[in-house]
Automatic annotation (TrEMBL):
It comes from Trichonephila clavata. GO terms for cellular component: centriole; ciliary basal body; ciliary tip. This is LisH domain-containing protein ARMC9. It comes from the Eukaryota. Keywords: Coiled coil. Residues 271-296 are annotated as: Disordered. Residues 40-166 form the ARMC9 CTLH-like domain. Residues 192-226 form a coiled coil.
Amino acid sequence: FLEFSKLNKTLETFEEECQKIGKPIQDLAGKSRRDQRIMKIKNELLQHFDNGKRTEFFAEWETHVNPELRENSLFCQKLEFSLQIHFAVLPMRKIDHWCKEEIDEAMVHFHYYLESKGSVLSECAEFLPYYALPYVPRPNTHPSFAELFQDSWVTKLRSKLEIFLFEGLKGKDDEIQEPRLVELYHNRDLDLQDARKELQYLERHIEESEKRSVLHAKKCEKLQEECRQLVAVASLLVTALENAVKGNFVDMDCVLSACTTHLPDLEKLRSESPHLGNTSKINHLNSGNKKQNNVSDNLDFNRLKQALRETEDQKRALIFQALRWRLTKAGNWHKREEAVLEFVNNDLLDFGAKSEETVKIFMTIRSDNHQLLESFTRFLNAFSSLVL
């Protein structure tokens, strides 16, 4: 301090008195303290780099790296750009699992950097391809970015960072730097300056986070509204499907009209789609089919049973198939129940036939014809599966 203030005589007197009382003078105390501080910051930055802590790394970077060097040094700007790329693709280097939220957040920060500080290198051919990085769905499979996912690229980047940090953290030249006593006198404590710079960075970071939070809240609100609309439409369609399964008439025009009240875009799709435009025709056909199904076809069981006893095996197999379809392809449960009762009341299988009958229909089970036997057993399976 005395030497910096050019108090030479006072300095000589001070040195003489210190020698008399045997008190050592620490000439390099200030320089040693600064070197220790630089080494501490350097180790912290490298540790954040190795651990993938992007927020902590750039908080230290903006706080401690000489601002003039960051603004004027092309090497420093390129190094910072490469560091931003490293942290942007870092979540995609995890082979065991990908976290979509981490990837999206990293790309949002990188996109913000490109639009702000990173714009100074937009004319540099070396970094020009990386301006498209936020818009590429899977950068790890793109040939332009293959180098970023190699361990050699990360190792090389760390070496550049380690070499740069010692010079970048020095600030002013140690020889002309003010003594510690002067810094304390003018309230320019380095730790206090660091805290203020870090506070400013955190305030900016909080402001950016709040903006992103507002955007995410709006997106979430929109998704919730769309989800409610889809649930309402799904409920209408399920109800219509249940009615169709029960055999009830379903007016598709009314169903689609109700759906469009929840999702107006369906009206546009409905007008553009030829299939949806023919719902009235479908309803007309359904109505006709319903009327047709209501008319029960009465069978002549005497002729039917006679045919099952006397006709050739191939025709008998076809008759059993038709009888099975009469059960399985009935319009609804009531029609199926009517068909079963019809078979039972008319003793289709001759279980109640007189003993003098030479051929009984249920004895078809002993037939040697494979096609007839298969058709008969399928009919029995369908017949027995219906419980009255």
